[in-house]
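Reminder: ligand-aware prediction takes two inputs, not one.
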Amino acid sequence: MSRIRTSSGAGELLVELRRDAGVPLHQQLEGGIRARIREGLLRADTVMPSTRALADDLGLSRGVVVEAYQQLVAEGYLVSRGGGYTQVAPVEIVEPDGAVATPAGEPRIDFRYSRPDVSQFPRAAWLRSIRRVLNETPYQSLAYLDGRGTIELRTALSDYLNRVRGTAARPEHMMICNGFAQGSRLLLQVLAEQGYRCLAVEDPSDNDLREVARAAGLEAVGVPVLESGIDVDALERSGADVVLVTAAHQFPTGAVASAETRAALVAWAAEGDRLVIEDDYDAEYRYDREPIGAMQGLAPDRVAYAGTASKTLAPGLRLGWLILPTRLVEPMSRAKLMDDRGSPVFDQLAFADFVARGEFDRHLRRMRPRYRLLRDTLVDRLAARLPELVPAGISAGLHVMTLLPPDLTEADVQAAALERGLGVYGLTPYWVASPGPAGLVFGYGGLTQKAVVEGIDLLADAIGSLRIR
Ligand SMILES: Cc1ncc(COP(=O)(O)O)c(C=O)c1O
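Here is what comes back for the chain with pyridoxal-5'-phosphate:
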């Protein structure tokens, strides 16, 4: 077997040449290169090695390589360029069996939830923070980390959260993680190791977490959400010993947990060795009034608080944080080190600088009116074009939920919308115990005002078409 080195520097490819096979070498070479181009392993525009270099590498005469290249040029797999070099031509790729399917085209207007407006990421301020951090960080900080993360970020975030979210955070109790996804997974694993058995989640709620809980060995049960937040009487009956709530702005209903619900949750946790996990994922975006403080501030030893930069800055940053009760700090720190040895240090330090200098506050002040405008536009357009779709919940966050009238199914509405290039998403995946009423969850964070208006107009048209049929 002989190896071809591509002169693009992109890597190496193997071509099997069998000198005893009875097949001419130039044909074997052609076949090997052709197959790789057809499978997309040698991509369009890749610069091929010179015939001389390749002949040397493979121990062939140059004429054999020239003949193979000429044949592949004639077949349209390679292009001979002026200046004496040869490139891979753009050809249709034959997907081998088992290839990962690329998703079908995205809808032109997409109300998929979870998308903040990443085009507004504060690049200039972030760059200033990165520059400062790269210039000023002592080399000692580049060694392996404390499992909780850098003290700079834990300090900056605890100051910020105590100021704007009413938490009672101390840097020693904070842990930096790769988003809520990692923080919640590690927390559920540690709780399962400590003997917790059953996680209660709000019904409806984000569906990923139930799977994570089950993978950690916990049972997951749904507890209904009322207008005043999770039903604590039902929680009491559920037999759960840990509960996850989105108290500031329930996902997806948009309800806020009342003062009574919060107090009852804390009282529930205080009986026995129970724990509340508070997912404070989008509390910074409350448009009608100041957000209610986090529950963690009421009972730091009964509530594990989780925050994320995914809604406020960008999900691609993968930055999240936990404020942990004392008893969970050490096991969580160990779990984080076991998982990935800590989150990337420059990202943490840049974010710490960004928060400590007030850039995070400035960014949120700039984004709040933008999102508010999008939400108001969505709600107004629904009222004008589809008054049966009544938004639930408070004026906050990056999503709106509505129920559907009984004559419509989520699947029909979704299909009719998609025919018009519109992506809308149903409530069904979020129900836990049993399927609840049909509805839609609109994420508007990444859309323009014009797209929101057009999207609701398309939806009205889609629903109109279903009723004519
Ligand atoms: C309810 C809820 N919590 C938290 C998050 C944030 O997750 P992560 O920090 O892993 O991006 C999301 C993201 O969509 C969410 O919907």
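Residues 114, 179-181, 206, 246, 251, 279, 281, 308, 310, 315, 320 surround pyridoxal-5'-phosphate (CB under 6 Å). The CA atoms of residues 2 and 16 lie 6 Å apart. We will return to this case in the review session.
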